[in-house]
Structures are given as C-alpha cells and as structure tokens.
Amino acid sequence: xxxEFVPDAEDxxxxxxxxxxxxxxxxxxxxxxxxxxxxLRQWKLTEEWNLHLWIKAELSRISHGWRLQFVDTNGRKAExxxxxxxxxxxxxxxxxxxxxxxxxxDFGKICAFQIAIxxxxxxxxxxxxxxxxxxxxxxxxxxxxxxxxxxxxxxxxTRKLRVDEAFRKGIHTDFxxxxxxxxxxxxxxxxxxxxxxxLCARWIEEKEKAxxxxxxxxxxxxxxxxxxxxxxxxxxxxFQPGKLDPVAxxxxxxxxxxxxxxxxxxxxxxxxxxxxxxxxxxxINHKTFCLLTSAIFMNEPEYASRIYPNTGKxxxxxxxxxxxxxxxGVGSDGKRYMARDHYAAxxxxxxxxxxxxxxxxxxxERASEAYMKHTLSSIYALFNFCMDEELRRIIRMFLDLVWxxxxxxxxxxxxxxxxxRHHYHVGSRDSMTPYAIYHMGGPGLxxxxxxxxxxxxxEFPSIVWELALDRxxxxxxxxxxxxxxxxxxxxxxxPGTEYTLMCNTESRFVKYSWVTPDYILGTQMDHPYAVHxxxxxxxxxxxxxxxxxxxxxxxxxxLDPSPRQAVKGGKYSLELMCHSVQHRQVLITQQRRRWMxxxxxxYPSYDDIYDREFGLYFGAxxxxxxxxxxxxxxxxxxxxxxxxxxxxxxxDNPLAWAxxxxxxxxxxxxxxxxxxxxxxxxxxxxxxxxxxIIIEAGRKADFPALTDFRQTxxxxxxxxYPTVVTQxxxxxxxxxxxxxxxxxxxxxxxxxxxxxxxxxxxVNYSYPYTFQSPYVQSEYNSGVIRISKHKHxxxxxxxxxxxxxxx
Length: 807
Known about the structure:
By secondary structure, this protein is of the alpha+beta class. The chain has a 13-stranded antiparallel beta sheet with strand order 29-30-25-21-20-18-17-15-37-38-39-40-41, covered by helices on one side. Strands 1, 2, 4, 7, 10 and 11 form a 6-stranded antiparallel beta sheet that branches. The chain starts with a strand and ends with a strand.
C-alpha cells in the first residue's frame, strides 16, 4: 500500500487502539494484512486453527466479497473469501481448514495473511483484535493482540537476533563516536586486525595528550566505553575474550590507569550518596568507572599492587578540565590504597546508593529527554560487569523499580508526568524509550552507551509488561511520588564541593500525575521555601500528553529568547519555574515569582530562568479547537481539555478593589484579552507573564461530545477574590473542577510563596509515600515497594536481601 497504518485509540474493539489505514491516490486494489514479527520466521499452525479478527471499512464503493490469502515461507498460498456487510465493525472467525491451498502449502510455516480490498482515495479500513486460536484446546497465538506470556516468550526467543542486528547496523555509522563504531565491529568480528591497530593508536594518542597537558577529566561516554572494550573483548572477558590483541589491551590498560589514578578518589566513596559532582548522570557515570576500573586493576598483576595518589580532590566535571590542585578538596586521609581497597569501597557505596534511592525517590533527571539514557547506561554497566553478586541483586531490584515507574507513567510508550532538565523540547519520546522498545521485543541500538542494555541479561518482570500494556485496564488513578534534588543549605559550602550537588535532605517536592487510558496530566509541586539545587530548577516540563497522538499536548513554555536558547535555535524553551497545584484532572499553574536556589561555587547561576515571557504549547494535532466564555477548548480523539488564562483589569476605583467590594467576587471575565495565539495557532502567549492558568482534562467515556464537556466546564465554580493591591494578577483564586470527586482548590496568584489548598487542606510537600498509586506503594524511607496488578504482585525489599525480590 502507498498509505500506512496508524493507531486509532478512539475507534477500537480491544486493547488500547485499533489499526486504521487511509487510502492514498491511485491505491486501487490493495492487500492489507499482517506479517509475522521481523524477528520470527513463521506462525506454527495446523489446519485445525482459526484466524480471528475484527474489520471495519468506510469505502466509497462496497464490495461485499473480499479475497483472503495466506502465504508460507516458501511463497506458496492458501486462499479464501470473507463477506463484509458494510455496516461498521464486523467479527470474522476464519477456519484455516476452509482455505483452498496450493500443493505443498505448509500450515506450519505461515508468515503472512492479507485481504484484497478495492480502495479509492480517502477510503478507510480498520483492523483489530487479530489472533489465531485453536477451537478445541483454547490455545491462542496473538497477532495484534498478544498475551503477556507470548510477548515474554518472543522477546527471549528473538533477543540474540536483535542484539546481532543492532551491532551489525552500528558498524555502518560513526554516530556518537568512532570508538563506538569500532566496538560494534569487534562484536561482529569484522576487520579485527585493522580495528585493533586503530584502537591501539587512539588509546596511545589519548594517553600522550593527557601526559602533555597534565590534566585529568571525566568523559560521559568515553569512560564506559573503555571498560566495555576491556571487559567484553580483553583476555579475561566472559563475553568474547581475545578479540583485543595483547598490544591494544596493554595500551587500553595504561590509558585507564592514567585516566583513573587521580580521579578514582576513594574519598568520594565515603561521602553521602546524595552528594553528586556536576550533575546526576555525570556523577554516576564517573563513579561507575571508578568501581569497574578498580575491579579490572585488582585482577591485573602489573596493577594490583599500585598505590593510588589519594589526593582527596575529586575529579574534573564535563568540559571544565582543571589541573589537579584547583579543587580545594580536603578528603584525603593520608592512607595508602590499592585497587582492591577502592573496589570494596565503591561496592559498599553503590549498595547504599541504590538502596537510598529506592527509599527516598529517584532520579532528579528520571524523565529527562536526554540525560536518563546516560544514567541508565551506567546502571546497566554496573549490573553487567560488577563481580559482587549482592550488588547485582540490588541493581536488578532497582531496575525493576525504574521500569515499573516508567510503565505506570507512560501512555503509548511516551512518558508523561513532571520532568526536569527537559530544556528545549516539548518532547515526544524520552531517552528511556529506546531501552523500553528493546526490552519489549523491538530493535536495539548501540549509539551513546545503549549497548549496555544489549550486553545485559536483565529482562522485565511480567508485572512491568502487565502495567505497560494494559492502559485501558488500569483505569484512572493518581500516581504520586516524592521528588529529590532539594539542596542542603550549607553556607559556606565545604571545601571540595565546588562542582557538587549536596542533596542529602528530605526534599519537599511532590510529583503528581493523573493517569488515564487516554491522557496523562502531571506536574511537580514544590514547597515555596524549598532550596533548589542548580539542576532542579532547569528544564521543568509539566502538562498533558495524549495517547492517541504525541503531537497533541499541553506544555508550559518560556517564549522570550535567552542566550542558551538562541544557541539551540529554538523558539521556546522549558527554562521556566512554575508554582503549581494539581488534584486529579485539574492543574492550576503560574510562573513562580521567586524561589531559593543554592549553586556550587564553580557552577554558573543562570539568570534566564527568571521573569520569562510565558506561554502554553498546544501543537497542531488537535481534532477540534474552539474558544468561548474566556476558555479554550480542544479535543483529540477521546481526550478533551479546557484552558483558562486569568487576567484581571485594573479598576477605576482602587479603594473598592482594596476593600474587597462584593461586586468583584466571582467575576471571571474582568479582562478577556489575556492571551493571543502565534501565527500557526500552536502556542498561546500570555499577555501577563504571571497570569495563572487553569487546565482541566476530560474523557469521552465521561462526556459524549466536546459540547457536553464545554457546558460542564462553563458551569464549574470559579471565583476571584481581590487583594489590597491593584495588579492584573493580584487575586486569590478558588476553582472546583467537574466530577463527584472534585475538590475546591485555593490558589494565591498574588504570592507564589503561599501554599495552595485542596479541599481546605494545604499541599503536604513532605508526602508520606515514596510511591503511591493503586499499583505501586511504598512508605517514605521504608525501602519496601509493593507492585501489584490484579492477582500479580512483586515485592522489592531493599532491607532484606535474602527476601529481596518476591514474586
């Protein structure tokens, strides 16, 4: 076909969506159907099996008889007919025994089936709920609908094929580094002699550069790749030993020693696991390098007895390559340590690191568009190569928790909820998406350090599959969790922390998401007096995503250009701090007027996240968009949204305003000129940068049409109470959304250091749960996480490793 199938979440018979095909010009007669997975050769069937599917068609000309054709791996065919009435969805059970099969057609090797439909431009066909079934045994083989057990089996069955495919594709591009391409070539065994020669020259050159400049530094991508070369292809590897020749292996060992002898600073392992140098992903990357190089050197006779300098000065961060001695570290204890000492110290450190994050929350960058892939790569590298089995058990549990967190807060593979360090994109996929695709049976990647997931034997527990694939069955619920990243207000800061986040505190951040089968709406609610670290205030994403189309979304954005934004060439950014409150499907937010932030001495305090021009990104993919009664209403598939931007007009009688004259109470249209659209109607610009915004979402399951939703919203309680000053946004707001579970929300638009109230109670920023939803529960700082769905349960106990991971 010249067109393509797209998911349709609005019109379906099973699961989260059907597949819809729209005919393009000159389509004519088209064969529409399914092939077996690209990583499986065939469906193993017999003539006793039946095919089941639902079909719906909207055609300019109905032909009630459609040819049906099955194809085996040898190209032989078996044909039949189905008769469509032309009246909406129709169910078809098709016995394979009734087909007219060519001689030697093999029912055990069917690889495709297709239906011949005469199509004209604009004609549409839907397919859904497609599977094979055995009428006597009750066995099923899913095609569009697959049971979790089948998906897990297929993922395991195809893993080696998908890993090999990823590395073979990787050898054809040097995207994200020539050394990455060379690693892929070693994996597939291509040009071993030439690759070893080039690698050896690279490593010798890099060592010489470091010696000449007398500078040590951290490399976000390079460090993990170095240890991966040695541990995958070195003489002691358990993966593919001996692919590195002795000369290249020796050059690599010398380089890793020179790169780590100063920066593998044992004093860092004795600090709080919440003290992070530079940024979260750089910190775990470098500390992973410390542990894994220590493990390497303790088993290399030439290096095992070497003494590390033990300067107590930490390491250089990212591009800030400073000479040893620049940092004012005082962490050295004057003792002599060898690789085995460093290894033991880092193993103990990481056991506490992952346990602490299971207790109190993870990560500051957990849903970042870019940084989480680097953090994940480090976690997988530790899991793949660490020799300590207890640490590996902890990491396996932690990965279960990370992926449960992702599965609960995503829709159609797109992460919803609040995000930090999202920076310049309203986003679609986040950096965890490629990992999720691979773990759920799709293709893998090797760019950056994604190869770590390919080297791993980690796989999703069945409950993660259940949570990720049954958005409809999970219903509507709030997912609330404790955020991390509030800074210790240490002033003056201790020497040696010039690049360090000092986040060993009970962070007063609450992450809130309202998760439904059709959309996710979420924000992070910060205590007005929380001390933000230099990262927790950057790239803050909040808003709504639709499962039907990632392009239809609401995201608060900054619209005025900033120096960093200009470098990226963007028209908007997410460098914007907001004062927010959310209850269920209602989010009220406003640009924060002020907040407290504590930055490390050698990290700049950006001034382009204050006092920004404020906007709301809509995108161009909404099916309907209309404005009435001061509200903006939009629909995408089964999702409705209502947006109200509030701006009051200064009154001619300031005294009446100051006295709170009753004539002002409850007036919501004091100034209808509160916003304007950009040229292509994808972004709303607020006329006052501190106007509060009300966002309320709804579903077609609750409102038959947008008109019904609109009528309800316009009847909701919305009251404004004046303050003692005459400013356009100086008012107190009371709003109550739709539904029997709605609560009154009080919001002070005049002072963002006031605490919003929900149902008369102030937001509890010291939330008593690390994770709470119907499917994930953990009391704050308990270290015990219960993950459940119907009869399935997984308990992660970070306090008792003998129990640990209980199914």
